[in-house]
Amino acid sequence: MYGSATTMRRLRRQEELTAWLFIAPVVLGILVFQVYPVIFSSYISLTEWNLLTSPRWVALRNYAELLTRDRFFWKALGNTAKFAVGTVIPGLILSLFFASLLNQNIRGKYVYRAIYFVPVVAPAVSVALLWQIIYEPNFGILNSILRFFGIRGPTWLGSTKWAMPAVIIEDIWASLGFMIVIFLAGLQGISREYYEAAAIDGANALQQLRHITFPLISPVTFFLLVTGLISSFQAFSVPFVMTGGGPANATLMIVMYLYNHAFRQQHMGFASAIAYVVFLVIIFFTVINFVASRRWVFYEEVV
Fold first, then answer.
1. For residues 238 and 246, what is the distance between their CA atoms, to the nearest angstrom?
2. What letter does residue 57 receive in the DSSP assignment?
3. Which residues contact 33 (CB under 8 A, 6 or more apart)?
4. Where does residue 127 rank: exposed (0-12), middle (13-18), buried (19+ CB within 10 A)?
């Protein structure tokens, strides 16, 4: 009996060791590429470091200068907030509209779904270059169409007024397919029995939309709202390629501002401070979304 218990413990230890051997590469990767960079960057944010010399401890000076003296930080943060509002809210509305259309029993709906999803899998830089051509003021497709109707189009990416709307339109177009797919999955998860019962009770299409569709897809809407907000605060590649932050910093995003300090000016400590402030901003708005979701997100399980 004692020998059997000893054998069982030995086998259990061998199984645990084998399991740890299998997950060791993953754990090591997380420690090296995620945990260590977070700890190191938090330390660097409290120093002055240019990659060539040893970090010099400055405590909270980077944060103080960032929040009180650097007007470009607030400009970049304001631009990012405009970008977030301009892409997330219209994107949700348009994607729900198209998902509702694609949820109908129409001919060729699978082809339409594939077409809408193409921009999602296309390289972001290639898409940005394509939209640069579309926005070209003299020979671009968009201004050519406007001239056909007797409208003189703006310079788009060269205008401080129109550059941000131009970038927002591109981002909505590029991310629309992903949101459509998520909304479509949510719509297909709603049982037709709800609509049939509502129709029997005399509910029209708008009433069904308000009292059935919106509540039952509210978890999906909340997911896209939170992830879209986080993604918009991390926008970099598209505005960087299309405008480089210009003209006159009209499209300077917060991550682009971080990039300029880190890799163009080698102010790694200051750039790390920017990163942590942005992280706190994202956490702040995410918490607000979670708190507000208690009032409008329907968490009951759909049968």
1. 13
2. E
3. none
4. buried
48, β-bridge pairs: 56
What is the tens place of the pLDDT at every residue in 85-105?
A: 999 999 999 999 999 888 888
Rounded average pLDDT over 13-41 = 90
Dihedral angle of Cα 53, 54, 58, 63, to the nearest 10 degrees? 70
Confidence of residue 300 (pLDDT cuts 50, 70, 90): low
What token pair was written down for 247? 């003209």
User: Residue 159 is encoded by which pair of tokens?
Assistant: 């205008």
Task: Evaluate if residue 298 carries a pLDDT over 90.
Answer: no
Give the dihedral sign, CA 287/288/291/296: negative
Please report which confidence band the pLDDT of residue 132 belongs to, taking 50, 70 and 90 as the band edges.
very high
Q: What is the mean predicted confidence (pLDDT) over 262-282? A: 93
Q: Which residue, chain included where needed, has tokens 């939170």?
A: 226
Q: CATH homologous superfamily of domain 70-296?
A: MetI-like (1.10.3720.10)
Among the listed residues 61, 31, 67, 37, the one whose alpha carbon sits nearest the alpha carbon of residue 267: 61
Where exactly are the structural domains of the chain?
Answer: 2-40, 70-296
